């Protein structure tokens, strides 16, 4: 694993013992997860975008570690969110599809989330922003599990997108009560609600968990003029301003942590739920040159920004090439807070803490993706080491890529390396069959938007 330090090695050696001493003396850390919606891997300045202004994401990266191979657990939003909370790949935890319509799929109460475990360990917990872990018909039916069921003491959320857009949203619910129209723009409104809880409502004698899941830059976009005016004359002016709008909300949260005097003992993760919206138009964001977009299992659909700051435990300004994924957040949070992983179920994610020290991560479960809504030949994918296999849903169009040498997935090695392809295909099938056995397969058998379950994946 390559770990790039922004300070000389001699200074690094002097700092590391100090980090260990600080870690031994600190109480349990607070946890903040800030999640963007449809933000591409190439949508931040610190990831190479020369047009966008993201001073707070960049600042966070300068204070912590920036992963160049961070992944979402799915190419669409509901599944990737479920994996962040449970540490389990989406089909295993049951949230196999994006929950935009009517249906029975939801994040089941039997799933164990990190907020629930930390709540039981004495943490104060809050979720603000998008939820999207219930179908639309379930969000106002409180027989189904809501954020409070999954471990949040306080919450304000929308079922899916902010409506009618990011401006003056009307569809928030706070602790099971409708909020009504709110004046302003979504990300700053969401951040302000989290800050209100942080400053005025929580028990400050306890450590806390805060989830800030903003709606930007998901369509339909609405951008405050103070942010869009930063990009006069550019065809993607509104989109770039929308990314800066969510970056501003991140800065609000970071400033609030400073004001509360808790930044030095807070683990904060910034990431996105999947790649940018489909179509290379000015409104749809950047993959940074990677192949594919949202809904695809190519890199552009699943590789996302991933930045982590943890003062005293992560040297400032690190850049890591270690592959990490959204489901790793669950295991990382439990590792950081000293809570044992559940032993009664498969946990796909692993703790990222060794990567904070420049060590490689050891995985029992490979990085795996399956999306029911992708177009073309990228419905399934699996990565093991530097190798990635990509397939259509019926496994009759197979692709093989060496990702470290070919992150753009331009050189399909399937024909040139048939033995490696066969090995990867065998492991892909074994991985999928184990996931399908453990997950609620009755939810996706013959479901709309997915071919029938069955023989096509069992040869």
Automatic annotation (TrEMBL):
PROSITE patterns: SULFATASE_1, SULFATASE_2. It comes from the Bacteria. Residues 29-339 form the Sulfatase N-terminal domain. Keywords: Calcium, Hydrolase, Metal-binding, Signal. Residues 1-23 form the signal peptide. Pfam families: Sulfatase (PF00884). InterPro entries: Alkaline_phosphatase_core_sf, Sulfatase, Sulfatase_CS, Sulfatase_N. Residues 273-292 are annotated as: Disordered. Coiled coil: none annotated. Belongs to the sulfatase family. This is Sulfatase-like hydrolase/transferase.
């Amino acid at each position: 694993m390559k770990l790039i330090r922004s300070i000389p090695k001699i200074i690094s050696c002097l700092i590391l013992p100090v980090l260990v001493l600080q870690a031994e003396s600190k109480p349990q850390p607070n946890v903040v997860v800030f999640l963007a919606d449809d933000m591409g891997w190439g949508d931040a300045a610190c990831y190479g975008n020369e047009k966008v202004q993201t001073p707070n994401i960049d600042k966070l990266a300068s204070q912590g570690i920036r992963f160049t191979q961070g992944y979402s657990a799915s190419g669409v939003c509901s599944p990737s969110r479920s994996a962040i909370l449970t540490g389990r790949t989406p089909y295993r935890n049951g949230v196999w599809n994006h929950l935009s319509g009517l249906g029975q799929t939801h994040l089941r109460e039997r799933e164990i989330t990190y907020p629930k475990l930390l709540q039981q360990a004495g943490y104060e917990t809050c979720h603000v922003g998008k939820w999207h872990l219930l179908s639309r018909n379930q969000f106002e039916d409180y027989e189904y599990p809501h954020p409070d069921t999954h471990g949040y003491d306080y919450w304000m959320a929308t079922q899916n997108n902010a409506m009618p857009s990011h401006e003056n949203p009307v569809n928030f619910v706070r602790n099971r009560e409708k909020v009504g129209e709110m004046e302003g723009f979504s990300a700053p409104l969401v951040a302000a609600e989290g800050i209100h809880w942080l400053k005025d409502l929580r028990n400050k004698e306890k450590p806390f968990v805060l989830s800030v899941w903003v709606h930007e830059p998901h369509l339909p976009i609405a951008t405050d003029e103070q942010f869009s005016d930063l990009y006069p004359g550019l065809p993607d002016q509104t989109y770039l301003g929308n990314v800066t709008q969510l970056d501003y909300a991140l800065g609000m949260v970071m400033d609030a942590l400073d004001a509360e005097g808790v930044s030095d003992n807070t683990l904060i993760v910034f990431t996105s739920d999947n790649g940018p919206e489909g179509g290379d138009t000015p409104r749809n964001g950047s993959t940074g040159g990677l192949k594919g977009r949202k809904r695809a299992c190519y890199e552009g659909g699943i590789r996302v920004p991933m930045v982590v700051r943890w003062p005293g435990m992560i040297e400032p300004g690190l850049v890591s090439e270690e592959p990490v994924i959204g489901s790793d957040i669950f295991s990382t949070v439990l590792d950081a807070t000293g809570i044992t992983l559940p032993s009664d179920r498969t946990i796909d994610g692993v703790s990222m803490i060794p990567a904070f020290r420049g060590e490689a991560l050891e995985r029992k479960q490979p990085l795996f993706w399956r999306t029911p809504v992708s177009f073309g030949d990228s419905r399934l994918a699996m990565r093991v080491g530097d190798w990635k296999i990509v397939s259509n849903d019926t496994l009759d169009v197979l692709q093989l890529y060496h990702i470290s040498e070919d992150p753009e997935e331009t050189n399909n090695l399937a024909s040139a390396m048939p033995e490696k392809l066969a090995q990867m295909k065998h492991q892909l099938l074994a991985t999928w069959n184990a996931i399908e056995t453990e997950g609620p397969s009755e939810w996706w058998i013959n479901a709309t938007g997915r071919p029938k379950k069955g023989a096509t994946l069992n040869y």
